[in-house]
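CORE FACILITY INTAKE
Project code: CF-77B
Contact: R.S. (postdoc)
Sample description: multi-component assembly, two entities in total
Requested service: structural model of the whole complex
Turnaround: standard
Below are the sequence entries exactly as provided by the requester. Do not edit them.
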Amino acid sequence: MTKDNLAFRQELIAVLPRLRRFAMALAGRKDLAEDLLHSAIERALRNWGTFQTGRRLDSWMFKIMQNHWIDTRRAAASGETQEFGAVDVQGEDGRVVTEARDEMRVARMAFEALPEEQRAVLTLVVLDDLSYAEAAEALNVPIGTVMSRLSRARAAMSALMQRASFTSVRKEN
Amino acid sequence: MLNDDLIGAYLDGELDAERSAMVEQQLRADKGAAARLERMRAADDVLKRALPAARISQDDALAASILAAQPFAHRRDWALRIAALAAAAVFGLLIGRGASNDAPAPYAISAQEAQLLDTQPSGRVTEISTGAFEVVLSLQSEAGDVCRQFRLTRDMQSTDVLACRRGVEEWRMVAAATAASVEGYVPAGANSPLDAAIEALGPVQALDTVQEGEQISSGWRHLP
């Protein structure tokens, strides 16, 4: 083994924000998302030697997380009810006008209203720029399924956002 | 006719040049499709701004524990509950694997390996007669077991082994799994015998460098 465990850990920390976002997309709740993230990282640290240098670490981690999530969901049988709590949003600064914040709030609400598998595929392809092939591998589904879920997710996002902005306009009047 | 799958694939840069050109041509003729493309693009843009990946703050506890190699002493109730429920399924998996031909052969800890397990810190590679030996992780269970996971690599093939001892006992193998060959991709979960064995230890704590050092200097008899 010539691979460097410290370098692996550092690379893991670099992708941590994206892993956290994906965990939230799957779990829908901050406490469950953190548990999922912790478990996946424990597993990754145990199995780091099987990670092939040259592969995308985020993509490898997404797959571990997806598998772990499916496992725990299966074990939990009926499962927890999913709800998004207040999502911490960073990256907004004081100059962002109210209108834009509103639009983003609407987008977050629309995203939260989507089924879990649609949130997952949107996160991987739109937010993390994975190719369809990479997303299919991470999610353990055929590419065709990635495409159809993505289409449905985008259509639902558009519809929900339109409806939400319509509602908020009416409220203001 | 442009369906949404195809428009999406165009937007995501998934089409080759020829199909991309074809879609562009059809988009010029089909105003409805062009509008759908713009709606998708706009929704994507808003989503990207609405859900940025948060920056890691200086005091991110998880990042710190990854770096310090001392992850996760705490487990929430939720995780324990899930683990208990999952145990039955994992046990079934182990039985299933035991019956198959590709299960790793029983592994006896050699004297040389036992000596390295006693003395070698994690992350250091030593060449021994059976291959390249590296301890990956040290654990301590609440029940009083101390365990070390090591990897033995020989002829491009790695075996992961979990060895445990308690008090004055010798190191014994608890689980083993064949890891990836250098070319082969092993999907996540392929090490499940080791994962399952660690789960079966009950509540465990991964040792950090300092704790591991204490165990090494006390001959692995340091009590928590």
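Facility notes:
- Chain B touches chain A through 62 residues (CB under 8 Å).
- The beta strands of chain B are 125-128, 131-141, 146-154, 157-165, 172-178, 204-206.
Invoice: internal transfer
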